Amino acid sequence: MLEVSGITQIFGGVTALNAVSFSIRKGDITGVIGPNGAGKTTLFNIITGIYTQTAGTVSLEGKDVTGLTPDKLARRAMVRTFQNIELFGAMTVLENVMVGMHTKSSSGLLACALKMPWSIAEERRIRAGALKWLEFTGILDLAEQTAGSLPFGKGRLLEIARALAVEPRIILMDEPAAGLNSQETLGLATLITRIRDLDITVVLVEHDMELVMDICDRIVVLNLGTKLAEGTPREIQESPEVIAAYLGDDD
Amino acid sequence: MKRDLFLFIGFAFLILLAPQLFSGGYLMNVLVFVGINTMLSIALNLLLGYAGQISLGHAGFFGLGAYLSGILSTSYGVDPWLAMPLAATVVGLMAFFIGFPILKLKGHYLAMATLGLGIIIYIVFNETVELTGGPSGLSGIPNLKIAGITFDSDVKNYYLIWTATLMVMLFSLNLAGSRVGRALRAVHDSEVAAQVLGVNSRILKVQIFALSAIISSLAGSLYAHTMTFISPASFGFNFSIELLTMVVIGGLGSIYGSFLGAALLTLLPEFLRGANDYDIIIYGGLLMAMVMYMPGGLVRGIPALFRRLVTTKKGEAGHA
Question: Against a cut of 0.80, is the pTM above it?
Answer without folding.
Answer: yes
